[in-house]
């Protein structure tokens, strides 16, 4: 992934300060990711704390644009000043590729962590953004489920592995393959927030039904309760009658989970992922980039509301 370069206007917007204040702090024609991070420290501009969140992007149905969303979401969080770790769980390594890297170029993945007991810190790689790291994946990860099968406490291997490094990051984003197995079970047992990308078609309902049944069984059998479930509609085209009907059905059946933000169909978004760059690098002004930013900010708002409500309930109790 190439080093992102920001205009003065974009830099000021990311910092949330007037352009005049930016020029007073550091007057340049352009700004690098390192400049942005240094300015945050120098000006003491930090995003609102959200705790140390562990967030999973998962849908048992493939082709929903899950990886494009998860990588863009993680990248945008980092741009806004959060310290982020993106963990690629898919043996195809698509999240790794969306950041501009090839999984085969890295010696260690989660396979070495979960099966061969290497520390998770040894598998972490860095990007040009000082506060965005990732754990790569490659085809070697395809054997993880079989390797975990005979192990004691196999459902909790990932939870134990992240204990070493979870305090380093504001957010850990896990990108999961569209399947159900021990690796995804591990991911669900780590997650506090579950993101379910869906397409606006009725086939998506089958994946949702199975996923919610799985979540319910985790609560009953393994005593793990997710803090939040967010359904996000991806590749929405309001000119399609079927898309509008599917959206209406989602609003009827899953109103408490469905985000109001719709990520619209955007060829530039899909093209950015295929080129191995986040949409915020290649097409910052595209509707896909704007929608991911809006989706992220809605999530942050809901997390903030939950914290306020929890504090209110604690005082009342």
Word description of this protein:
This protein has 317 residues and is of the alpha/beta class. The chain has two domains: 1-46, no CATH class; 50-316, Rossmann fold (3-Layer(aba) Sandwich), CATH 3.40.50. Helices cover 45% and strands 15% of the residues. It is built from 14 helices and ten strands. A hairpin with a 5-residue loop joins β5 (125-126) and β6. The longest helix is centred in the C-terminal third of the chain and has 30 residues, at 287-316. The protein is globular. The model has no long low-confidence stretch (mean pLDDT 93).
Structural class by secondary-structure content: alpha/beta
CATH architecture of the largest domain: 3-Layer(aba) Sandwich
> How is the biggest beta sheet arranged?
8 strands, mixed
Beta-strand content bin:
5-15%
Low-confidence stretches: none
